[in-house]
Amino acid sequence: MSISLTRRAALISSGAGVAVLPSVGWARSAANDDAALAEQVDAYVRRAMAAFPDQPAVSVALVKDGRALLTRGYGVRAIGGAAVDEHTLFAIASNTKAVTCAALAILIDEGKVKWDEPVRTYLPGFSLSKPELNEMVTVRDLVSHRIGFGLGAGDLLFWPNSDRTRAEIMAAVPHVPIEDGFRTSYHYCNLMFVVAGEVVAAASGMAWEDFVQTRILDRLGMSETLPVMTGADPAKSALPHGRLGPPLRYQGEMQTIGQSIQEVWDWSAAGAAGGFVTTPVDWARWIAVQLARGELPDGTRLYSEARANEMWRPNIIVSSSAGPTPDLPGRAIAATYATGWQVMDYRGERFITHGGGAPGYISGTVLLPGRNVGFSYFTNAEEGMLTRALRSGIADIVMGKTGFDWVADGVRMKAGNDAKSIAAAAEIDAKQAAGAPPSLPLAAYVGTWRDPWYGDIVIEARDLQLWLSFSRTPALQGPVEAWDGDTLRTRFTDRREEDVFISFTLENGRPAAATMKAVSPDADFSYDFHDLRLTRV
User: Fold this and answer.
1) Helices (H), 87-241
2) What is the DSSP letter of 292?
3) 455-462 and 373-379: which strand pairing?
4) Distance CA 110, CA 28 (A)
5) Separation of alpha carbons 459 and 443, rounded Å
6) Which residues are within 8 A (CB) of 11 and not within 5 positions of it... i.e. 6 or more apart?
7) Per-residue pLDDT of the chain (537 residues; tens, 9 = 90+)
8) CA distances in angstroms from 126 to 170, 183, 200, listed in the order given
9) Which secondary-structure segment (H or E) carries 376?
10) CA pair distance 516, 534, nearest whole angstrom
11) For residue 146, how many other CB atoms are within 10 A of its CB?
């Protein structure tokens, strides 16, 4: 969220207009209004970008009746750089989850996996911090966010970029705390999708990324897509952008925050949860097979219609409300999570969607099966109100709904959010200025602090100050300073990352344990500091 914005002209778009998917059989006869629909969406995207002039790039795919009506890139790969087009790679993060579920669906069709079979059937060593769940958790539970983990539990194993292997992530799973009841409520959990990827590997005899490549991407002709981002060519990629302050992350001027996707987003060990990089042209193929419920143009199937229907069947309630209001015309009566997809009502129709968020990227996919239409939007910055406007505004165009200006509403909400964030930052600084001194000399907090699932965090004396380092997360290191009493705070040297409060518990006049939480109220939930329970080694 910005204090001062770098204003510039609306970004120049590039790419073809109406693009027919090049695989034989994908394109079908289009209705007379298809060209008009594509033109309306194109004009809307341009208008949205003009209203958020700091957004470097957006790419969009629009599919109807198996035909790509629009695959286009708008803007630039990096501020001051070359234009994007419909073949430019974007990180799409958690949009990957639906692909992981499709991989499971293929194996279910082959009789190698069952949705409601215990995970231990395929991974005998699978265990959790609540042992009573070990035999109960099923494959469906893994991909429904309903096991009871807290929001983002375990994400620090791979966010920010970590040096952990997939095997090391799996070894940490039994120690990650579970804070809620089994199948009672929804808490978004990337970690269990990593486990789901290992179910794919165990049942197929191939690593998750190899299975996805050979059994999904190759069959769909998605030649530009990579299951994990480590192979993404920076010269073909939209580079990540964000706001690094001051005073806090998500405030300040927009800037390029990496010279490649993988510099800020290396989830190769957690690929099944969010590894994909793709282009609008390729993702249009994915949308088309989703809308066709697994059927390919030649009449064969990626997965059966029964599996397609299961993946859209709700498994847990995400939220509920009294429904739309004049100020919230898209508010759902019930939002649910199915199997790699969120399913809800939107303006009286079934709305199937999923988003993705990575440092420097926000993306989303929307399916309107009642109209046989789907679309996606990929961005290379963190402007959440822009992506909200794209999601709802394009949906309204497809549905023929008028009367609500999602772009203007997004601009208004962004201004309000900016004001709240700036006020929160001032309050944090004021509390530090008025804070009590630590009860002990800072040297008393030096030591190695260990969490059962994360590992070690080291505080040492360096150059007349304290220095904190997360042992498995290279970016999380920097000086530590007093904040209020026995709560200290970091100033990580890599300003792309979120600073942390460390609150110590004293025993016998000595720091013995510590907990953490992000300094900023705007911090992404995947900075899973709050689940750490540190004890002195």
Assistant:
1) 96-109, 139-142, 166-172, 190-204, 208-212, 218-220
2) T
3) unpaired
4) 30
5) 9
6) 49, 53, 55, 56, 57, 74, 75, 76
7) 222 222 122 222 223 333 333 333 333 333 458 999 999 999 999 999 999 999 999 999 999 999 999 999 999 999 999 999 999 999 999 999 999 999 999 999 999 999 999 999 999 999 999 999 999 999 999 999 999 999 999 999 999 999 999 999 999 999 999 999 999 999 999 999 999 999 999 999 999 999 999 999 999 999 999 999 999 999 999 999 999 999 999 999 999 999 999 999 999 999 999 999 999 999 999 999 999 999 998 999 999 999 999 999 999 999 999 999 999 999 999 999 999 999 999 999 999 999 999 999 999 999 999 999 999 999 999 999 999 999 999 999 999 999 999 999 999 999 999 999 999 999 999 999 999 999 999 999 999 999 999 999 999 999 889 999 999 999 999 999 999 999 999 999 999 999 999 999 999 999 999 999 999 999 999 999 999 999 999
8) 8, 18, 14
9) strand 373-379
10) 9
11) 24
In the DSSP assignment, the letter for residue 438 is P
Angle (deg, nearest 10), helices 34-51 and 406-434 = 30
Sign of the Cα pseudo-torsion (529, 530, 532, 533, in order):
positive
Cα–Cα distance measured from residue 15 to residue 464, given in angstroms and rounded to the nearest whole number: 55
**Token pair recorded at residue 408:** 């203007």
E strands along 244-360, which residues? Answer: 254-256, 277-278, 316-320, 334-337, 342-346, 349-358
Question: What's the DSSP call for residue 4?
Answer: S
Characterize 208-219 residue by residue with b for buried, 16 or more Cβ atoms within 10 angstroms of its Cβ, and e for exposed.
bbebbbebbbeb
Q: For residue 337, which amino acid is it?
A: Y
For residue 191, give both structure tokens: 């970690």
